Amino acid sequence: MEDDAPVIYGLEFQIHIVDFDDENNIISKNVLLHQVGEIWHISTSPADKGVLATCYNKPSDSKVLTCAAVWRMPKELEPGGHESPDDSTSPAHTLELLCHLDNTAHGSMACVAWEPAGDGKKVISLADSHILLWDLQESSSQAVLASSASLEGKGQLKFTSGRWSPHHTGTQVATANDTTIRGWDTRSMSQIYCIENAHGQLVRDLDFNPNKQYYLASCGDDCKVKFWDTRNVAEPVKTLEQHSHWVWNVRYNHSHDQLVLTGSSDSRVILSNMVSISSEPFGHLVDDDDLSDQEERRPEGKSQEPPQDSVIATYEEHEDSVYAVDWSSADPWLFASLSYDGRLVINRVPRALKYHILL
Amino acid sequence: PASRLWAAVGAMAAAAAGPGTGSGPGDSPEGPEAEAPERRRKAHGMLKLYYGLSEGETAGRPPGSDPLDPTDLNGAHFDPEVYLDKLRRECPLAQLMDSETDMVRQIRALDSDMQTLVYENYNKFISATDTIRKMKNDFRKMEDEMDRLATNMAVITDFSARISATLQDRHERITKLAGVHALLRKLQFLFELPSRLTKCVELGAYGQAVRYQGRARAVLQQYQHLPSFRAIQDDCQVITARLAQQLRQRFREGGSGAPEQAECVELLLALGEPAEELCDEFLAHARGRLEAELQSLEAELGPSPPAPDVLEFTDLGGSGFVGGLCQVASAYQELFAAQGPAGAEKLAAFARELGGRYFALVERRLAQEQGSGDNSLLVRALDRFHRRLRAPGALLAAAGLAEAATEIVERVARERLGHHLQGLRAAFLGCLTDVRQALAAPRLAGKEGPGLAELLANVASSILSHIKASLAAVHLFTAKEVSFSNKPYFRGEFCSQGVREGLIVGFIRSMCQTAQSFCDSPGEKGGATPPALLLLLSRLCLDYETATISYILTLTDEQFLVQDQSPVTPVSTLCAEARETARRLLTHYVKVQGLVISQMLRKSVETRDWLSTLEPRNVRAVMKRVVEDTTAIDVQVGLLYEEGVRKAQSSDSSKRTFSVYSSSRQQGRYAPSYTPSAPMDTNLLSNIQKLFSERIDVFSPVEFNKVSVLTGIIKISLKTLLECVRLRTFGRFGLQQVQVDCHFLQLYLWRFVADEELVHLLLDEVVASAALRCPDPVPMEPSVVEVICERG
């Protein structure tokens, strides 16, 4: 994808593909029409960059039902395909429907998650209290319900969010409903762990540490971000309390998992440096070993400095609640955030920190 | 007598001369009364001069006159020629005439004085002459008699010499006979010795026996080569051995008490028994007795609860064990003083061991006392204990008993401090439980909320009285009359580190921690701690910060004059901690209450089907409930916290009507943009509006006043409403319902907050968001909205 960092976000009835040219600092966008309804969730296939799934509100007479479908975007708009983006003049493109994830029996879709590093054929969707595993067949033109599981308990249980773990060869999925986080095994569709009362209030989002297989981050309405070790769910490993309102999103950086991004309805985006629980050994052990072989042994103290978690930066560009944040998949130092008023902000990790991590 | 007589005569002469010499040309005109002392002094001066005393020369003379001046009429070196010459040369005729008449007058006066003196003393002169004559006669007679005495004495001496010469040889024989007699007596004593000893032993007069034996031993030793003496010695030894055995027997029986035992030991020592062995035996016996004492103490200690109180116990221990130990020690030191350091060391070890066991018992007893609340008894007991041990402590410095006792007292004092701290904590927790019950009870009865202020006052006063009681109880340890109060620990560390830091500061800290723990309780859903309790604790901490802490610490410092220099926690640090706690509690209160209202709003938004709702006729019940709850919270907070500052614009009492007016105006502001044709305009408008308004920090820290608290709660609630609304889709009537609800909230919530603009902003935002989430946004007429709200 070269220097470009495409970001896709949804607005009512439209999908914008935003290209950010890092070299020239130019942002360009393409608009895709999504005619079936307003989009509540969007996710792209890991295998085919032209394929994406959306959850959308289907306007019906007196009911709102959220459905999910898999789409293919026109070839020329695929990220990386360099077109002449004269978007202001060119008519909006239309998405090509591949298949619906039929949820008439299960209720509103809350989110769709693709199997990470898979071949783009397995999709999990969360519909009310059901977790559904779909098999996309015949180049995604047909979705077959492979297996499903559902929550049981009193009251109306509703999934709010779910993530597919990149570890364990894609057999684990984590979901959130109300204040509880659950882990599922996709092979048996059975629950493998459950964090009751993970947050004081509703859990809004989850993310897996891309490098440490048991680590999970969660955020919620209690303004906290918590980090969990799924092997021991009695206590969070770490808790952050930097936001002053609900935290809607939490994202690990894809390659440097000490960088954690959170977006909140206090209209702030916070980039934190969670050195103490990252996969990268603090103080660069490898380097130290090399150095100590070459030089005389240095006095220990310096490299033994305990890691300090810290807030790297608080981004206050948004005027209203921030509902989505994500890292660029192309450039690990780039991230975008989107707020209620439709403002998309693209930021870079501060240069000093970047060099500190790299060197 | 002669010399004394002469002195008297001399004095008389001087007295006679005095008046004459005293009146000279420099006579002062003041008269005889004034010059009397002067004259007397002069007379004394003359006398002294006569007797060669130098001081008279300076004392008796008027200042300024040269003693060697030959012209001084009264001087010793007066030369008439020089004087006359001087007069004649210096003075005019008239003055000469004057001085002549003056002189004549003085001479005449002197003459008459002399005459009177002689008359007056004439008789005395006569009698003196008579006396001297008589004395001459008497002396002559005495001389004769003395001569006779001398001759008589010579005769006596002669006779005496003759007598002693005749008695000489007889005297020598008598002396020899006396010597033989004494020797024979001694021999008789020796021969009688065995039988005497036996008798003594039979009679039990051991002391007498030992004395005899002592007297005879050396002689027997010396003459043991003579067979007869040898036999006596052997007999004696046998008897002595029997005696020693009997003594030992008596000693071992032990029942006869320490003084008698001491006597036995003394006798045995006199018999030349080995001291070391006796030492050991003595100590072993003493040990037996003291162990019996300890055992009886232990029995008192016993597992059965009705043990005697601690004072009685220490008394028992003090009189029984410590007294016994004292006796043993002093007897030992008296008896075995000759043993030197080794013996002393033995005694010290003995005392150390038994003392250790005694201390262990005392400690066990004291440990039983830990639970009780009464300090005075304990302190008195400790005092007795400590006082009692001072005697053996002084006697046996090496055994370190006094130190160990002090240590025990210190340890107990420390434990008491810990106990009191625990007690204070328990009292605090008890208060909290009471408050919880008080908070829970009236709610069941359905009455108005309990008097929070009253509860607060109760809690504060009860804690304060507990603290004071603890201080008073602990203060007993440092009372002047208590024997250990002047130990360095009690003068310094106990006061500063123990009482001030450990007890008071520790309690305040733990109070803060306990209070803070309510903030961190896992029951974030608000179930665990009643919000009113949070509020009350917050106020309590704040009160502590403002007044109580400094009061308590001052009280402490006054009661325990801290002489220790070790650093203590300053008042300011504690106050800061208390304030921080108060702030956290209040913030938590805001969160909890905000959450309660938020949940209500959220459920109301999430569970309703907004698309197919009917045209609004009423304000939804939830909103009324919200307003009611907010009012209740307002009342609750108002009980404990001051009003606080509002923005000036809303301090007006006629505000409500104005608010209605302004809110309707604001509705007018966004109303035109609801036409479906211009959805972007709304967006733009709200964006522009936001540009000029300040960012609202939802969970911002609160200040210590009612308005700030209420503002916090309302902010949280409305922000929740906003976010929930944004997640839903509204039909036309749904939007209108939101409009109505928001207007209603606006009508009633403005008066609780510091800045009503805030409520307006948030509610506008809610309505605007709802409008955005509505496919068919047709707003309701503001007037209709108002009517519905007024009716509701």
Ranges of chain B where pLDDT stays below 50 over 5 or more residues in a row are: 1-35, 55-61, 649-681
Q: Based on CA inertia axes, which overall geometry of chain A fits?
A: globular
What's the number of extended β-strand segments of chain B? 0
**Helix fraction bin of chain A:** under 10%
> How helix-rich are the residues of chain B, as a percent range?
over 70%
**Structural class of the secondary structure composition of chain A?**
mainly beta
Largest sheet of chain B: none
Portion of residues in beta strands of chain A equals over 45%
How many helix segments of chain A? 2
How would you describe the overall organization of this protein?
- The complex is a heterodimer of chains A (about 350) and B (about 800).
- With about 350 residues, chain A is mainly beta.
- Chain A has helices at about 285-295, 350-359, and strands at about 5-10, 15-20, 25-35, 40-45, 50-60, 65-70, 95, 95-100, 110-115, 120-125, 130-135, 140-150, 160-165, 170-175, 180-185, 190-195, 205-210, 215-220, 225-230, 240, 245-250, 260-265, 270-275, 310-315, 320-325, 335-340, 345-350.
- In chain A, the strands form seven sheets. Chain A has a four-stranded mixed β-sheet with strand order 1-2-3-7, with no helix packed on it. A four-stranded antiparallel β-sheet of chain A has the order 4-5-6-8, with no helix packed on it. Chain A has a four-stranded antiparallel β-sheet with strand order 9-10-11-12, with no helix packed on it.
- The longest helix of chain A is centred in the C-terminal third of the chain and has 10 residues, at about 285-295.
- Chain A starts with 6 loop residues before the first strand and ends with a helix.
- Chain B has about 800 residues and is mainly alpha-helical.
- Among the domains of chain B are: about 415-440 and about 450-570; about 595-640 and about 685-790, no CATH class.
- Chain B is built from 25 helices and no strands.
- In chain B, α8 packs parallel to α10 (about 310-335).
- Chain B is flat, with a radius of gyration of 59 Å.
- Chain B starts with a helix and ends with a helix.
- At the A-B interface, loops of A face α21 and α22 of B.
- Chain B: One of its GO terms (cellular component) is nucleolus.
- Chain B: It comes from Mustela putorius furo (European domestic ferret).
- Chain B: Its main location: Golgi.
